C-alpha cells in the first residue's frame, strides 16, 4: 500500500505537467483548429523565465576588502548579490523565492509571446492542411530552442526551490498513518496544488465568464457566433495567449523538479500530444483527465517490480495505452462524436 500511494503521488506531479501542457494544446486546437508543435517550446520558455529571474537576482557586486587578505596577500573579494545590497532581507527573500517570483515575469511575457506567434505566423496557416501546420510550428520550436541554447548554453541549469519548501513532507503521518513511511518531496506536492489551481481557474474562466461562454460557443460553431456580430477571431487570439500562459506557468514551477535545458520542450511535446489524442481532440476535460491518468500509469510502470517482468515498459506504456484507446474509441476518452472518427 505504501508503494502504491508513492507511485500515485509520483503520477500526480507528472500528470500535472502533462495536463497543463495538454490543456493549452487543446485550447489552441479547439478554437483555431491548429496543431501547434511549438507548444512544448512555450513550456521551455516558461522554465527559462525562472532561470532569467534567478540570474538577475543573483548578480553579484564585487568589493575588495580593506582588511582581509587572500593567501597570496591580495585583497579578498567580497561578493554580495545586488538584490541583497539594495533591499537587505527582502533581497534575500527574493533570491530564495526566485521560482515563484518568476511568475510575475512569465505571465505578461508568455501572453505576449502567444499573441506574437498567433498574429505573426499561425494565422497564415488556419486554412492550410494539418501537415503544413505541423511543419511550420515544429520549425518554430527548433528556432526557439536554438535561441535558448545560444543564450543559456546546452547544459541543464538547476533552479532551487525555496528553502521552506525544499524538504520532505511526511504524507502518511498527515493522514494518520505511521510516521516516516510515506515521505514525499514537498515541492512536488506544491506543484500539484499549483497545477490544480491553474486548471481550475481556466475552467472557471471558460464556464462562468461571458468571454469564456462565447469562446466555448465559438469552439462548437464558429460561423454562427460570427454571424451574431461577435469578433470571434479576436477572442481566439486571446485564447492562444492564454494557452501560452498556461504552458509557461507549468514550465516555471517545474524547474526545481527537472533542471531546464534547451530541449526540455521537445521532451514533453510528444507525450503531451499523446495525452491530447487519448483525452479526445478538442476536449478540455479529456486533456486534463488523460494527463493525470497517463502520468499515474507511467509512474506505476517505472516500478522495479514491473520492469523486472516487462523490461522497458515505462518507456512505452503511454503509447500502448494510446494505441488501445484509438483502436477501441477513435475520438478519445471524452472526445466529441465524429471527431477523429472515420
UniProtKB/TrEMBL annotation:
Its main location: membrane. GO terms for molecular function: transmembrane transporter activity. It comes from the Bacteria. GO terms for biological process: amino acid transport. The keyword rRNA processing does not apply. GO terms for cellular component: plasma membrane. The chain crosses the membrane at residues 15-35, 42-63, 101-122, 134-152, 189-215, 236-257, 269-297, 309-328. Keywords: Amino-acid transport, Cell membrane, Membrane, Transmembrane, Transmembrane helix, Transport. It is a multi-pass membrane protein. InterPro entries: ABC_transp_permease, BCAA_transport_permease. The keyword Nucleus does not apply. It is found in: Cell membrane. Belongs to the binding-protein-dependent transport system permease family. LivHM subfamily. This is Amino acid/amide ABC transporter membrane protein 1, HAAT family. It comes from Albimonas donghaensis.
Amino acid at each position: 500500500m505504501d508503494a502504491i500511494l508513492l507511485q500515485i503521488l509520483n503520477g500526480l506531479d507528472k500528470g500535472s505537467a502533462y495536463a497543463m501542457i495538454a490543456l493549452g494544446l487543446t485550447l489552441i486546437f479547439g478554437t483555431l483548429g491548429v496543431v501547434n508543435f511549438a507548444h512544448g517550446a512555450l513550456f521551455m520558455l516558461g522554465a527559462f523565465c525562472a532561470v532569467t529571474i534567478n540570474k538577475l537576482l543573483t548578480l553579484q557586486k564585487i568589493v575588495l576588502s580593506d582588511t582581509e587578505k587572500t593567501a597570496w596577500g591580495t585583497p579578498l573579494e567580497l561578493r554580495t548579490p545586488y538584490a541583497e545590497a539594495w533591499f537587505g532581507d527582502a533581497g534575500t527573500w527574493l533570491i530564495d523565492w526566485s521560482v515563484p517570483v518568476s511568475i510575475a515575469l512569465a505571465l505578461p511575457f508568455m501572453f505576449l509571446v502567444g499573441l506574437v506567434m498567433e498574429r505573426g505566423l499561425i494565422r497564415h496557416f488556419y486554412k492550410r492542411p494539418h501537415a503544413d501546420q505541423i511543419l511550420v510550428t515544429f520549425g518554430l520550436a527548433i528556432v526557439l530552442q536554438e535561441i535558448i541554447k545560444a543564450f543559456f548554453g546546452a547544459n541543464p541549469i538547476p533552479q532551487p526551490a525555496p528553502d521552506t519548501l525544499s524538504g520532505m513532507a511526511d504524507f502518511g503521518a498527515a493522514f494518520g498513518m505511521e510516521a516516516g513511511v510515506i515521505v514525499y518531496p514537498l515541492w512536488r506536492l506544491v506543484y500539484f496544488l499549483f497545477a490544480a489551481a491553474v486548471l481550475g481557474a481556466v475552467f472557471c474562466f471558460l464556464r462562468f465568464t461571458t468571454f469564456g461562454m462565447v469562446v466555448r460557443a465559438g469552439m462548437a460553431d464558429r460561423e454562427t457566433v460570427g454571424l451574431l456580430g461577435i469578433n470571434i477571431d479576436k477572442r481566439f487570439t486571446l485564447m492562444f495567449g492564454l494557452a501560452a500562459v498556461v504552458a509557461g506557468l507549468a514550465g516555471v514551477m517545474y524547474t526545481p523538479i527537472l533542471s531546464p535545458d534547451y530541449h526540455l520542450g521537445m521532451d514533453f511535446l510528444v507525450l503531451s500530444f499523446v495525452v491530447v489524442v487519448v483525452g479526445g481532440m478538442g476536449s478540455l476535460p479529456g486533456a486534463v483527465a488523460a494527463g493525470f491518468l497517463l502520468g499515474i500509469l507511467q509512474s506505476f510502470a517505472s516500478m522495479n517490480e514491473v520492469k523486472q517482468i516487462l523490461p522497458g515498459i515505462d518507456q512505452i506504456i503511454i503509447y500502448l495505452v494510446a494505441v488501445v484507446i484509438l483502436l477501441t474509441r477513435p475520438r478519445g476518452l471524452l472526445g466529441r462524436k465524429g471527431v477523429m472518427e472515420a
